[in-house]
Amino acid sequence: MPSYSRDEVVKIQHTLARKGFDPGPVDGIWGRRTEAAVRAFQAASDLLIDGIVGPNTRKALFGDTAQPNPVDDPAFPWFQEARHLLGVREDTSSRSNPEILEWASDAGIPYGSDDIPWCGLFVAHCVAATMAREPLPTNPLGARNWMRFGAPCPPQVGAVLVFWRGSPNGWKGHVGFYAAQTPNGDFYVLGGNQSNKVSIAKIAKGRLLGARWPATAPELHSAPHIAADDGSVFSTDEA
């Protein structure tokens, strides 16, 4: 994960601690204790209590309205958790990566082995670990079930993107987070189970089924985040 994102969270944690709101360890990781400290600060400051460091909360904390790059914005804690996990791999032997199994255990999701497609589990972990009040879809291991998550939104940084896999009319799918898109509109997706790891993959825009935004997060309709096409091949089968 790029250092700016971690530094931004550290800045929030330091400021909360100085103001008497305990965020837990000042470690640059957006967890439930940091979210609880933000909520306590918002309650004391007569702000909307949503646990998100949006424009009004940033102004109250720091005395300014400067916004970070959306990719680095701690107002998207689920996305920052996803970035923090870049590089985590499944165990391709007969064993499983215990970290992936722990995601399932923490979220209360039955899951036996990382041989089972885990793109939905990855998204569920990132949401559940950072947004305690956000409902997960029924059977979050099913990628297409994420079409019932939150609310529809335009594709934007942090949005949950749901894709068909195999056939548009079939049952197979893939789910991950919007990181950017090419000038042609194809997506760079931060997701799990992409080449057996958490990575950023390029996925053709024609495979998109929909984009969803967490119900408990502020509704944001930001402009597309355009990145140059890196010339990489399209991901076609993420299982």
Automatic annotation (TrEMBL):
InterPro entries: CHAP_dom (IPR007921), CHP02594 (IPR013423), Peptidoglycan-bd-like (IPR002477), PGBD-like_sf (IPR036365), PGBDSf (IPR036366). SUPFAM superfamilies: PGBD-like. Residues 6-61 form the Peptidoglycan binding-like domain. Gene3D superfamilies: PGBD-like superfamily/PGBD. Residues 114-193 form the Peptidase C51 domain. This is TIGR02594 family protein. It comes from Stakelama tenebrarum. The lineage of its organism: Bacteria, Pseudomonadati, Pseudomonadota, Alphaproteobacteria, Sphingomonadales.
